[in-house]
Structure formats: C-alpha cells, structure tokens
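TICKET: design request
STATUS: open
ATTACHED STRUCTURE:
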C-alpha cells in the first residue's frame, strides 16, 4: 500500500468515525442492544420444525427417537428465543431501565407463555392447510402444501409472530414477518388478526396491514392489498384502526386494493380483480370492474377460423 493511499484511508476512517458521534439513531453503536436478526430467523425456522415435526429435518438433532429429538429441539428453541426476547425487552418503555436480573425471568415468562400457545397455533395452521387443499385443485396433496406453498409459510410465521405481538414483545415479531416477506413476497404485519381456514393463493405481492381483521374461510389471491387509506398522520395514527375488516367467507381476487379502517367487506362477498375499494360492502355482494374494450390491430387467427380484425 502506497504512503499516499495509506494516509487517505486513515483520513477516511477518521471522517466516518467522527460522523458516528452526531447522536442520531443511525449512530447507535451498541451491537448487543437489539435482537440478533439472524438468530431470530434461526429461531423462526426451528419453530416451524416444531409446528411440523415430520416435515422438516434439523440436521444438528440426530436421533432415531422422535420424542428425544423433538425434546432437544424444543428446549434449544425456548432458550434461544428467550435470549432474544431478553434483549428486545429493553425497547419496551416499562423495561428500558430495568435491572438485568429482572429481565431474564420476564423473558422466560413470556417465552413460556408463547410456547403454551403453540397447540392453538398448530390448530389454526391445520385449518389453513385444509383450506388451501380444498381451494386449490393444483395441490397434489397436503404434504405438497406444507413443504412448498409460500402462502402457508407466510401465514404460519405470521400466526407465531402475532402471538408474540399480543404478548407485547418488541421487534422480534416484525423481524419474523419480514423474514416471511423476504421468503415469499407476502407482507403481513404481526398485528393483523387472521381467522381460521385462510388461503393465500400464489401470494406474491399480498400486503395486510397491522390493524386488519380477517375472518374465517377467506381466500386471497396475489397482489391484494388490505391497507390504510392514508398514513399522512404518521405516528399520531398509532393505535387507531387503520385497516379493513374482512368478514367470513370472502374471496378477494388478484390485485384488488381494500383500504381504510372503517371499511368492512361483508361476509360471503366476492371482490373482483383490480378493484379499488375505500368503502364498506354489504354481505353477499359481488364487486367487479366493467370489462374494458380491447382493440387488436392486424390479422388475427383463432381456432382454425380465417384471419380477421376484431374488437372485444
């Protein structure tokens, strides 16, 4: 390395280190002050293994005794999740200045309560599998859905994250759902309430906001947004009902947008593709957009018929 380059690098290092001293949020240097994102993702994968004990192999737990293997997995996951919750609790106002010796018991308590809810989470996930199988003739069998369907993966992770959200665990639920988002293209806020028998088909581009409420037997296709009508109020809107309510037995086709906290889609309704809805819809309503006129220029050929120009 030349003397000139060495001097230049030292100058740049000094420049950046000085920039860290400005006291902004971006200047935080305590790497132990927030949960480890990679570890939260690892815990999420292990939790999926716990939910589906016969579908995912955890290579580090090698045993022919299933109960022993799963016991080790559960204990390990509990320990690592509790460690991350302990770090995250510092971000709750009521724990910011809490003594270290009190944080660990609280983290263990929250983790234990979450694990008590796993049978309930599995019950809901099982209904999602059934709904997906019933609603998708392309599914080979239920095993196909569990192993490969992005919609089920996204809703499964969300159901776990939602319980941590309800337990007021900071940061970790959002890291979990953003992990699902990165894997599937489906963005469901951990605060969203999802009913049983939920099917998200294809899924890419689906967005479900924090205060959304989705009933039972709802089917959602790709590109659907269940979002806020306006976020101009910023943090002043925190805690308000900003996202729609979707009642039972509703189907929402691709690229529809349903917006607003006061918007309710009544039960047994069908929302057609590309619809933009900012108002409530009565039960048993079909909403669709009038077909646009398509113009095809040039010679066209269709089903053995002579070439012709036509307008649809």
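STATUS: resolved
RESOLUTION: sequence designed for all positions
ATTACHED SEQUENCE:
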């Amino acid at each position: 390395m030349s003397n000139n380059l060495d001097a230049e690098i030292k100058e740049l290092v000094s420049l950046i280190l000085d920039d860290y001293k400005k006291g902004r949020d971006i200047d935080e240097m305590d790497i132990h002050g927030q949960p480890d994102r990679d570890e939260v993702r690892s815990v999420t994968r292990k939790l999926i293994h716990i939910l589906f004990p016969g579908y995912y192999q955890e290579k580090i737990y090698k045993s022919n005794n299933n109960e022993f293997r799963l016991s080790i997995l559960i204990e390990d996951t509990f320990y690592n999740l509790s460690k991350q919750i302990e770090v995250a609790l510092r971000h709750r106002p009521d724990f910011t200045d809490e003594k270290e010796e009190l944080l660990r018991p609280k983290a263990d308590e929250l983790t234990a309560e979450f694990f008590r809810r796993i049978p309930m989470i599995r019950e809901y996930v099982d209904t999602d599998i059934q709904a997906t199988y019933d609603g998708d003739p392309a599914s080979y069998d239920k095993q196909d859905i569990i192993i490969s369907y992005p919609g089920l993966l996204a809703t499964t992770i969300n159901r776990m994250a939602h319980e941590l959200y309800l337990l007021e665990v900071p940061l970790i639920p959002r890291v979990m759902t953003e992990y699902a988002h990165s894997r599937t293209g489906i963005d469901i806020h951990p605060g969203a309430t999802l009913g049983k028998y939920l099917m998200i088909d294809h899924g890419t581009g689906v967005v479900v906001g924090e205060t959304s409420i989705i009933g039972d037997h709802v089917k959602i296709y790709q590109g659907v947004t269940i979002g806020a009508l306006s976020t101009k109020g910023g943090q002043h809107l925190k805690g308000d009902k900003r996202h729609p309510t979707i009642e039972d037995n509703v189907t929402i086709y691709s690229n529809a947008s349903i917006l607003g906290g006061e918007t309710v889609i009544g039960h047994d309704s069908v929302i057609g593709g590309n619809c933009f809805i900012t108002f409530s819809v009565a039960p048993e309503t079909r909403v669709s957009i009038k077909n646009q006129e398509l113009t095809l220029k040039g010679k066209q050929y269709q089903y053995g018929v002579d070439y012709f120009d036509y307008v649809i």
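CLOSING REMARK: The first helix runs from residue 3 to 19. Helices lie at 3-19, 37-51, 66-88, 100-116, 118-135, 142-148, 150-166, 172-184.
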